[in-house]
Design brief:
Distance between the termini: 57 Å
CATH superfamily: Glutaredoxin
Largest sheet: 5 strands, mixed
Radius of gyration: 17 Å
Low-confidence stretches: 3-19, 22-58
Order of helices and strands: HEEEHEHEHEEH
CATH architecture: 3-Layer(aba) Sandwich
CATH topology: Glutaredoxin
Strand content: 15-25%
Number of helices: 5
Protein name: Redoxin family protein
Oligomer: single chain
Mean pLDDT: 79
Helix content: 25-40%
CATH class: Alpha Beta
Shape: globular
Organism: Streptomyces achmelvichensis
Length: about 200
């Protein structure tokens, strides 16, 4: 019985990988900055707590979604609250994913162009940390942080179920876009719209 459960888990993971990385153009179940979030994207999150709660980098109330800790692929601690007060791009990728590799150059360019105005963070999953480090090195995306999410905790927090996804948050931590951007096309425009 245990072997059957393990087989089903492996089969489910393989199907997830194929559907997330194997289609040509991908699907876009996301929303644009001016549109209401779709039912497939995480709900808008705020942290209006009765006790005042934490505050972010800009002194604003810390959204619940940013109250997490993680470790970068380089083994450094990372706190989600550091992202508060600025628009944030979370790029969910897997080291073996060709679509993710195709998005790397555009994502790195946006990170460089909007440094100081917006946060860009890679969230690597679905593999081991060594493969994640190799991906960052090979794609030359080491200029912005990448989280090693082997356990999938950050992916679950943002309700991401497949690699090659972007989750874009406004400065208040509200999800304004969630979806695939093949080759990263359109990412710069979405960030520009949030940074004014």
């Amino acid at each position: 019985m245990r072997a059957r459960s393990l087989f089903l888990a492996v089969l489910a993971a393989a199907l997830l990988a194929v559907t997330g990385c194997g289609t040509e153009g991908g699907s876009d179940s996301g929303t644009d900055a001016g549109a209401a979030p779709s039912t497939a994207s995480p709900p808008a999150r705020s942290s209006a707590s009765s006790d005042g709660g934490e505050t972010g980098a800009a002194g604003a109330e810390m959204p619940e979604v940013l109250k997490f800790t993680a470790t970068t692929v380089d083994g450094k601690p990372f706190e989600g609250k550091a992202l508060g007060g600025k628009p944030t791009v979370l790029w969910f990728w897997a080291p073996w994913c060709p679509k993710c590799r195709a998005q790397a150059a555009e994502t790195a360019e946006v990170a460089a162009d909007y440094a100081g105005k917006a946060n860009v963070v890679g969230v690597a999953g679905l593999d081991k940390n060594a493969a994640m480090k190799d991906f960052v090195s090979e794609t030359k995306t080491g200029s912005f942080p990448h989280l090693s999410d082997e356990s999938g905790d950050v992916w679950k927090r943002f309700e991401v179920t497949e690699q090659s996804r972007y989750v874009i948050l406004d400065k208040d931590g509200k999800t304004v876009y969630e979806g695939v951007l093949p080759g990263g096309d359109g990412l710069a425009e979405k960030v520009a719209g949030l940074t004014g």
